[in-house]
Amino acid sequence: MIVVGFALQTLLFKQILSDIRYSVIPVNETIKQTLDGSNINMRWNQLLTKIGLGLTTTVICILLARISYAQPTSSDITILRRGEEISLNGNKLPVSWRQWQTNNQTYLGITDASAQQRLGLELLSNDRPQMQPVWWFGGENRSAYSLTAQHLETDRYLDFTPILRESSEQIAVFQNRLEITTNPAQVQEIRIGKQSWGNRIVIDLDRPILWQQKQGRREATLTLPAFTPPEISQQFPPPPEIEEAETDQPLLVVTSEANETQLQIQLPESLKLRVSTLANPNRLVIDLRADHLKSREIRWSSGINWKQDYIPLGEAAFAVTWLEIDPRLTNLDLIPIWGNLQQMQGITTLAKMGQENRANLGINGGFFNRDTKLPLGAIKREGEWYSSPILNRGAIGWDNQGGITMDRLRYEETLITDAGERFSLQALNSGYVQSGIARYTPTWGFTYTPLTDEETIVVVENQTVQRFITGNFDQDQTITIPRNGYLLTIRGQPELSSKLAVGMKLQLQNQTFPPRLAGYPHVLAAGPLLLKNGQMVLDAAGENFSQAFINQKADRSAIALTRSGKLLLVAMGDGIERKGPTLAEATRILQRLGAIDALNLDGGSSTSLYLGGEIINRPPATAARVHNGIGFYLR
């Protein structure tokens, strides 16, 4: 294995390594790529060779012996290299990239959502999935770039060679990481202006750049691969450190070191960032405004449209991002997903959940206890109850043939002893704790951790009571769930344990209401149910939601069906100069989108819509960890 220093110049590479061959690099792989009308031939071969992109851009392939071998994905598409991380001037980013070949053309691409969220490219509306217009400093003719798009595995990749040609000095592949070194740039001026809708910050640059953004709830940081002269950065210094009293934070703080500049921006209440780029001269325009969302519709694939817009409702208008899925044009499988398939305890971001479950797209699902990290509501997968319904709340059930039903769901289990006594069980595999008997099966996990201080655990194997476990349990104490049985936990009613005895035979009966939901292999509950057969059926109090929850203005997630059979995955955000919608307002928004059946999902900071490896409805840093979601898989 030979390690090559990244900082070496191209000439030095050629001198030292001209006789060294790397068997993992495909032999004589020719890339023919049209850039701005000129046909540029690029060649990867067994030598460490330059790949010309024109102008001053040079692409160098540095391989450390672990690059994936070429893998076919279909009869005419071959993946040549792949990775799940890029490095932009040394800053590592979790961005999926692929190099692929089709019809004797070779492309280098990253996922579409990551191109926008991680590198500052603005995706524009399109009319066909195979091409994606992108705005990035207007290009040479003050027009959008039109990038080739290709679905590979779970994501849609954009060939960003035209962008690299304009921005990058050097590209390398190092242990499956795509390393991009951009051309040196310089900030020439920074201006701040007050507008009627908020503040505008304008950064003048000497050339186009790829930039990174990290936005929290009250602060955003933009990282620019550009040097800012001290006479400019010193105009925007950090506030003085005062121990006894807090000072007002400045709107903008600029720090610069070497060829990198960081802009720290304070976000006033109700304002968010809208960042755009302009050419002649090259400018980065940062707007802080309440109406930050741009109207857009992207045909992501045949039968899947990615949309965002403000939906007017009375005097308000709400930021809404949604995926519109037409089952007649695309073959999709739906399945409940969660972070750890070995057990039901645990929370993670929907982005990580989607990536680990290899989903094409997804939406966050049902409620959960953020302290115990356990589900609070129905999760049924492939016919197995991983968590039972609670409180007669709204749920969605579906099968693999396209059948979908939304309704309020109740599931009842009855335990019958060989003495003929019957006991209604409080829950099956649930983090919802009530007085009575609950049952935990192997689908809950390998072990069960008592959820209260005092429980009586009854171990049942082969439908026979084997033993009792009683006493005060430590917080971390676990009890093995038998593979051929289950545990009964008795809480709050210790006298019930006297009705059971070692050696007693037990039977179980169950009923699902409404019965039609019993036949669906997949179920996920949240609530409340919002729409049924075109009628508003919102009854949050009847589903045991609190009045505070009912009246709350917050982000909302929902899943819905239209009259034409389209499936909607909807994330509703803040209104202009107000918080997000109430449940009633969310219902009306869904009606505006054409929904006739709709279910509210967990909302607030949990509201997450997943596509292309990214959360697309909010800055990733503001997305809370969730317990479960619904994953969608293209067949």
Quickly list its features.
mainly beta, Immunoglobulin-like, elongated, disordered N terminus, NAGPA, Periplasmic protein (DUF2233)/Localisation of periplasmic protein complexes
The helix content is under 10%
Give a short account of the largest sheet.
8 strands, antiparallel
Number of strands: 54
Provide the β-strand percentage band.
Answer: over 45%
* Overall outline: elongated
**How far do the termini sit from each other?**
40 Å
**Strand order in space, largest sheet:** 5-6-9-10-14-13-12-11
Secondary structure category: mainly beta
Give the number of domains: 4
Poorly predicted regions: 1-72
Number of helices: 7
> Over all CA atoms, what is the radius of gyration?
28 Å
Overall pLDDT level: 87
Pfam families: NAGPA
Protein name: Periplasmic protein (DUF2233)/Localisation of periplasmic protein complexes
Organism: Dactylococcopsis salina (strain PCC 8305)
